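Researcher: Next sequence.
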Amino acid sequence: MKALVLLALLALAALCLPGEADAKAGSAGSSKGAAFVSKQKGSEVVKRLRRYLDQGLGAPAPYPDPLEPRREVCELNPDCDELADHIGFQDAYQRFYGTA
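Model: Next structure:
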C-alpha cells in the first residue's frame, strides 16, 4: 500500500516538474519591462471610485467622524480611556480636557 502511494506521488511529481521548467524558460524570454505598466494603462485597469459619490453601487462611503481626533487623544491617555469605557467618550473627554 505504501509503495503504491509513493509511486503515485512520484508520477504526479514527474508530471508537474517538466511543466514548471517550461514555464520558467518561457518567462525568461519575455520582455524585460513586462512587470511595469504606464500610469494611463494602470488607471484603466484599476478605476478608483470617488469616496463620497454614489456611483449606483450601493450606499456612499461614510463621512469621516469629526470627533475622531479627540477620541484618539482620549485613547492615548490611559485614565481618560478607562473613564470613557465607563461613562462614554464625550463625558470622559469633557472631564479631562474641557468641552468636547
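Model: Residues 41 and 47 are 10 Å apart (CA to CA). DSSP finds five helices and no strands in the chain.
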